[in-house]
Amino acid sequence: MTFADHLAARLDRRPAVGGVEVVGWRFDLSDSRAIRAGLKDSRIGGPYDPPSVAASIGGGIFVVWSDGLYTYGNVDAQAVEAFEARLRAWRESAFADPYAPPLLPPASYPAVETFDPRVAAIVDGDTELLFRLLQRALETCRAAGARIVDAGVGAGVGTRCLCSSTGIWVSYQETSFSYWASADDLYSRGYSKRRVIDEPEAEDLIQDVAMTSAALRSEAPPLTGQLPVVLPPDEAESFYSHYLGANLAGSAVVNGHAAFTLDDFKNGKQVARSDLDLWVDTLLPLEGAATPATSEGVPGGRTDLITAGRLVTPLLDLKYARRAGMAPTPLPRGGPAFLLRSRRDDLAPADLLADVERGLYVYSLLGMHTQDASSGSYSLVAPQARAILDGQLLDGKVKAVLAGNFFEHLRDERTRFARFPFEWNPGLRVHCTVSAGD
């Protein structure tokens, strides 16, 4: 019997605390093993980042008690062996919840690829690729003049099991693979999916880190004014996640903490240009988002959140779907959390620069977590940027502060979107206020 089998069997016996029984339950459990290795201060396997192997069991649990209270708790590796102690802890955190989610019956769950045997082989001991990627990052960045190179690579394999007292039993194997590199603390870039990084992706990532870091090594004069600013996918996604993700979360919408109201969704309010679509898809093969079901048993799939610039639905778990009077949605487990497309712009990265007489290309942003997501406004430090002059990127690091409103950017006809190699979501070019950074 697996750990999940043992835990389910204990819960099925209707255990009690102080005469109050467990009358319903659901848990979402991951049993995994992982291996990682690092490059710290240009040393592979050094004392500051040695190779490591770890195993873990954990997840979430929802318990329905006979007195009408509910527990939203956690499961750890001791949940079976120390079951009585965990049961008491779950009971101590129980509370009344008039909007508690129902325990769903089993459903038809879609197939989705979540397991890469190449990753499993690494965890089982074939670790050559891990150290080869670290060595490659070190050699490539040093050849471009880097003094200090940091990098990390990891692989994980496990089994995820979603089980409930209503008969849900969804079990599947899953893998994860991550890789990142940084040179001279100037620029870093990473990769995270359920599959081993492919050769072209690894080459693109390493060359980008090496060449961009080299270009940022010297200082350049500041730029100021109302300027076109290019944001590559990583920086663009920080805007998508903060301003769209936060305001499309069902809890924020229902509780009145979002920029959008329930009526806005029910009326299909226009919030962006008519060429823009935003959706989630949990059936992307070997992506972090991939899952056949949410932790509550809602089947995976695709759900449109914004279509032709108009609101369709917030992201809703069972509790907030009930409160909103709308259908629950799939919820991605990882990236890409959202998928954004422009029906009008089908540009290449170079197209974002080509017609810029004077502008800025931003490689990193600081302070996003402090911005008021519901207002759309921002004032962010861009410590690593490069000037664009007559369509060309200039060498030299520009320090700047960017200010604007992301919702206005989504409605602005000047905003442009471009697809980058190996990226799901586009980079973009916006017009905002640029001032000199410290």
Summarize the helices and strands and which ones pair or pack:
Layout: H1 3-12, E1 16-17, E2 20-40, E3 43-44, E4 52-65, E5 70-75, H2 83-92, H3 117-123, H4 128-143, E6 149-164, E7 169-183, E8 187-193, H5 199-215, E9 225-231, H6 233-248, H7 250-254, H8 262-266, E10 276-281, E11 302-307, E12 310-311, H9 318-324, E13 339-342, H10 351-354, E14 358-362, E15 377-389, E16 392-393, E17 398-405, H11 406-411, E18 416-418, E19 427-436
Helix pairs in contact: 4-5
Beta-strand segment tally: 19
Largest sheet: 8 strands, antiparallel
Order of helices and strands: HEEEEEHHHEEEHEHHHEEEHEHEEEEHEE
CATH topology of the largest domain: PmbA/TldD fold
CA radius of gyration is: 24 Å
Q: Outline, from the CA principal axes? A: globular
Find the structural class using helix and strand composition: alpha+beta
Mean pLDDT: 95
Strand content: 25-35%
CATH architecture of the largest domain: 2-Layer Sandwich
The top-level CATH class of the largest domain is Alpha Beta
The CATH homologous superfamily of the largest domain: PmbA/TldD superfamily
| Total of helices | 11
Total domains:
3
Poorly predicted parts: none
Q: Helical proportion?
A: 10-25%
How far apart the termini lie comes to: 60 Å
Structure description:
Strand 2 and strand 3 form a beta hairpin. This protein folds into three domains: 212 residues, PmbA/TldD superfamily (PmbA/TldD fold, 2-Layer Sandwich); 110 residues, no CATH class; 103 residues, no CATH class. The longest helix has 17 residues. The strands form three sheets. Strands 1, 2, 3, 4, 5, 6, 7 and 8 form an eight-stranded antiparallel beta sheet that branches. With 438 residues, the protein is an alpha+beta fold. It starts with a helix and ends with a strand. Helix content is 24%, strand content 34%.
